[in-house]
Structure formats: C-alpha cells, structure tokens
UniProtKB/TrEMBL annotation:
<feature type="transmembrane region" description="Helical">
    <location>
        <begin position="102"/>
        <end position="118"/>
    </location>
</feature>
<feature type="transmembrane region" description="Helical">
    <location>
        <begin position="163"/>
        <end position="184"/>
    </location>
</feature>
<protein>
    <submittedName>
        <fullName>DUF2232 domain-containing protein</fullName>
    </submittedName>
</protein>
<keyword id="KW-0812">Transmembrane</keyword>
<dbReference type="InterPro" id="IPR018710">
    <property type="entry name" value="DUF2232"/>
</dbReference>
<feature type="transmembrane region" description="Helical">
    <location>
        <begin position="61"/>
        <end position="81"/>
    </location>
</feature>
<keyword id="KW-0472">Membrane</keyword>
<keyword id="KW-1133">Transmembrane helix</keyword>
<feature type="transmembrane region" description="Helical">
    <location>
        <begin position="124"/>
        <end position="151"/>
    </location>
</feature>
<dbReference type="Pfam" id="PF09991">
    <property type="entry name" value="DUF2232"/>
</dbReference>
Length: 201
C-alpha cells in the first residue's frame, strides 16, 4: 500500500518525514546555540545516529504497526462477531503465549550475522540484518513478558505486578531491564522452564 502511494503521488513520505525531523533538530540546536546552551558533539552524534537507526528500522516499524493495527481491528470487531455468532469467542491468555522454538535459532543466527558480517550501513544486507534482528528481538521480548505473566499467575501474584513490570520496562529508558526480559524470553523458548515452575507448585 505504501509503495503504491509513493508511485501514485511520487512522494516518499518516510524520507520527507525524516528530512523534516532532521530539520527540526537542527533548528532546535541552533536555538540552543543562541542561548548558549549548545549540546556537546557527543550528544549531537547520538541524536543523528538515532535518526539514522530509525530510518534503517522503518520497514520493521511498518510491520509492527501493521500487526498492532490488525490486533486492534480484531479487538474492535470482537463484540460484533460475538453478537452475530453462536460460538463463544474467547481471547487466549497472554500468559499462555508460546512462540515456535525455531525463533530462538533464527535469533541466534541473526545475532551472529550482526556481529561478524561487516557491511556498509547503507547497504541492503545491513538493512536486512538490522530489521530482522529488531523484529526477532521484539518477539523474544514478547515471549519474556508472557513468561512474567505466567509466573505471576502460577505464584498468585497481584495482577497489577506483571502489568507494572511491563509498563516500567517500556517507559524507563534502561536497557538492562529489556535485556533481562529478553533473557527470560530466551529461557522460555530454549528450556522447559514453565514445566519446572508447575512441578514446584
């Protein structure tokens, strides 16, 4: 759909948006310079690197946005379907989410490629590996959150606890938290961790 709109309108909305964003940042830096509050070169470098990364990850962001939109549509249509259907429709519990174990192998292979394959940042290979790694990280993170909800259910925690963990891990810019959640996702995919928890209960 996006490609069709680009062909029809002859406007690359992503590129235009990134140009506008870069222009806004440059204007902000200029204003800060005027007031003697200019950011350091390191901060500027980090900002521009973040913009470049956003540009690189745009395909993945589109995929994730599409998935979220589909889920929202299904959620919105659920009451209508339920009204006109005789079958009882029920959403599966998030804590029961079990992604394919092969996802872990894809994740590890992509991680190795990202570490050892030296490619130019403007190349297709770099973009493909980066986007694939980002999407796989997202699903591993999702599996980690599912495990947290599962543990909370088995241990009879207050329902707000896993929700707060998810909210804080997403809102607080602390990489170690999301890394820990991804580690839980890896454990959940690679080992019979849930069965062990059940046996202990």
């Amino acid at each position: 759909m996006y490609a069709a709109s680009v062909l029809i309108t002859d406007v690359n909305y992503i590129e235009e948006s990134m140009n506008i964003l870069e222009g806004s940042i440059e204007n902000s830096i200029g204003i800060m310079d005027t007031f003697g509050q200019a950011p350091t070169e390191q901060v500027k470098k980090q900002v521009y690197e973040s913009i470049d990364m956003m540009n690189t990850l745009m395909p993945s962001l589109f995929v994730l946005m599409s998935v979220i939109m589909v889920l929202l549509i299904l959620f919105a249509a659920h009451p209508i379907v339920k009204r006109f259907s005789d079958k009882a429709l029920k959403w599966p519990h998030f804590r029961d989410l079990r992604l394919p174990k092969s996802l872990l192998w894809y994740y590890l292979i992509t991680m190795l490629l990202a570490l050892f394959v030296n490619t130019d940042k403007n190349s297709f290979v770099y973009m493909a590996i980066t986007n694939l790694f980002f999407i796989l990280q997202f699903f591993i993170l999702l599996q980690g959150y599912s495990l947290i909800f599962y543990i909370a259910h088995v241990k009879s925690w207050v329902k707000a606890i896993p929700v707060l963990i998810v909210v804080f891990s997403l809102l607080l810019p602390i990489p170690i938290i999301t890394t820990a959640v991804r580690f839980l996702g890896i454990i959940d995919l690679g080992f019979p961790f849930r069965e062990t928890i059940k046996k202990k209960e």
